[in-house]
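Hey L., structure's done. Input below.
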Amino acid sequence: MMVPRRRAVVLVAAVALAVIVAAAWLAPAALLDSRVARATGDAVRLAAAEGTVWRGRGTIVAATTQIPIAWDVDVLPLLRGIVRMQVRSGHGALTPRATIALHGNAIALHDVDVTLPAAAVAAFMGYAAASVGGEVGAVADDVELAPGSYRGEARLSWRGARIVGLGDAGPLDLGEVRSTAKAAGDAISGPLTNEGGNLALRGQWTMTARDGLALALLLTPARADQTELKRMLSAIGTAEGAGWRVDWRAPLR
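Output:
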């Protein structure tokens, strides 16, 4: 038979545990904003959050972009140390949507269909949002990312692709840029092509946490009279046929 003092200790512990669980369950969704800001270096914020960290809604803000979302956290995976979250549109649309699972320092993505302004993607990566235009879409069934062990693939498209701030060459219109990104080992990479615009590009991109983003491209002006564009390409690349071979690297910020 449990002695009175031990029974009292167990009761106090049970009440304390219930209070902790209830506090976590009812924690306001607004607390997530500081976590999102810290994880993205203040490039992305969660504004107008309401509900709780377990079930809530808010607006993702990156540069001038605002994307309403809603989310639910599944309870049962928590027993195995996994935080699994269902993210969906805050307006009831089919996209954006994704299932995100966090376990230790690994992340798994399932049923992803997201379209974001290119400016928001640039801001997230630490580059000037005003330097690009168009919208970037990503579709993936299953992607797993853990340090040194990436797996899966995603279909990427950059529609209405536009780069500004290129000096006398003027804005660079690339039409629609496409790639199938494959995650393997410690890298994500894929071929890069486009259709339309005033510059044709063909090549490959690779991204790693250690080396950042690397591009190896053949860039070919669409018209013979693009004098300023040709001058810019000759300054940064090596002539090859009707185009210029360009290798470019940048760290992930």
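The chain is about 20% helix and 55% strand. The radius of gyration is 23 Å.

-- N.
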